[in-house]
Design goal:
- With 350 residues, this protein is α/β, with parallel strands linked by helices.
- The chain has eleven helices and eight strands.
- Helix 4 (161-171) links the parallel strand 5 and strand 6 (175-181).
Length: 350
């Protein structure tokens, strides 16, 4: 009896400590769920942070958006959404995921391996094969949710992730439909230069320089990472920037789209893989699964979308958004054709 009383007294004495521990745990969980996006949370969705591995064992971090009135006893169509090249899930790609969830789809938007909140070391590596794999890992995750119909999963790529979504779909037939917006073919850009202007001599010089950089990276024990966008949002575009760099600066470095985890450039030697790994060489094999290509009328990147559209087989569709620049299809909800995206995926994931 005395032993029981002693235990009760000890437990009472520990209550303040337990309360403090629980308070700290609760605060930590709340901190983890703090809204840190460049866009407001919709009252029409449920947001959850999720994580899952890709086949390389790298843990990916993603935001999952569910329709507010979801009935988890039913099966829903789902979408995997990829970010612009160098972007993170808290920016424009998250707008796509959230908006499509408002329209009845289960969606995830993820940070690529080695970037954002996802795992992988060293940081800021870029890999065409692994970034394509990350889309398939998203399909793995979605297709194992009890409320997702694994036969109705599609993908949306924005900017650089358009190429990765298409690359994944070329071999992953679980992806039943693909949409791209403001597409960049990063393999073509790295191997051929802007608008295919790189000469053989220039390409060989670049490869020689990258080979030398590999030795430097090996000796230093870390890959060289070029300078990126500022850690804090700035109010103006620096003088002397070319038009394309100015456009990206407007989005990534200024309040419009700035996020501290969106560094911009990748490790220098990442370019070698892209020069050796074409993204769209089997795009024709996606058929008869459909592709929706979306580009801005005034986008500097138009030629990537136009050429990919020509290479793809039916069924395919090209939508040109009047007056839109490349970055406008990141976040301009008044310009992004969400009605078209909804109609496309509703039809193709039926």
């Amino acid at each position: 009896m005395k032993k029981t009383i002693s235990i009760i007294k000890m437990m009472k004495a520990m209550l303040p400590v337990l309360a403090l521990i629980l308070t700290c745990h609760s605060a930590h969980a709340e901190d983890n769920m703090t809204w840190d996006k460049t866009f407001p949370l919709s009252n029409k969705v449920i947001h959850e942070k999720v994580s899952y591995p890709n086949r390389y064992g790298i843990t990916l971090s993603a935001d999952m958006y569910l329709p507010k009135g979801i009935d988890k006893s039913k099966k829903y169509p789902a979408l995997v959404v990829g970010t612009p090249y160098g972007g993170v899930k808290e920016q424009g790609a998250g707008i796509y995921a959230q908006t499509m969830a408002e329209r009845g789809f289960v969606t995830i938007v993820f940070d690529e391996s080695y970037n954002g909140e996802s795992g992988g070391e060293p940081r800021h590596i870029s890999s065409p094969e692994i970034f394509a794999e990350d889309f398939s890992a998203g399909v793995d995750f979605l297709g194992t949710r009890l409320f997702v119909d694994r036969n109705r999963i599609g993908a949306i790529g924005v900017c650089g992730s358009s190429g990765f979504a298409l690359k994944a779909a070329q071999v992953d037939r679980r992806i039943k439909a693909v949409a791209t917006a403001s597409m960049y073919d990063m393999s073509r850009l790295n191997r051929n230069g802007w608008q295919d202007s790189m000469t053989d001599e220039e390409r060989n010089k670049k490869l020689d320089d990258l080979g030398e950089q590999r030795w430097k990276d090996f000796e230093s024990g870390a890959p060289m990472l070029p300078g990126g966008f500022p850690s804090e949002a700035v109010g103006s575009i620096p003088e002397g920037l070319d038009p394309i760099s100015s456009e990206f600066w407007e989005y990534y470095a200024m309040p419009r789209g700035h996020h501290p985890r969106s560094h911009g450039p990748f490790t220098a030697t990442s370019d070698m893989a892209f020069m050796n790994f074409p993204l769209l060489n089997y795009i024709d094999t996606i058929s008869p699964r459909p592709i929706l290509f979306i580009m801005g009328e005034k986008a500097h990147s138009r030629y990537f979308t136009e050429d990919a559209y020509k290479m793809a087989k039916e069924p395919k569709e090209l939508v040109i958004v009047p007056g839109a620049r490349h970055i406008d299809l990141y976040d301009r909800v008044d310009l992004i054709p969400f009605d078209k995206l909804e109609d496309f995926f509703t039809k193709e994931l039926k």
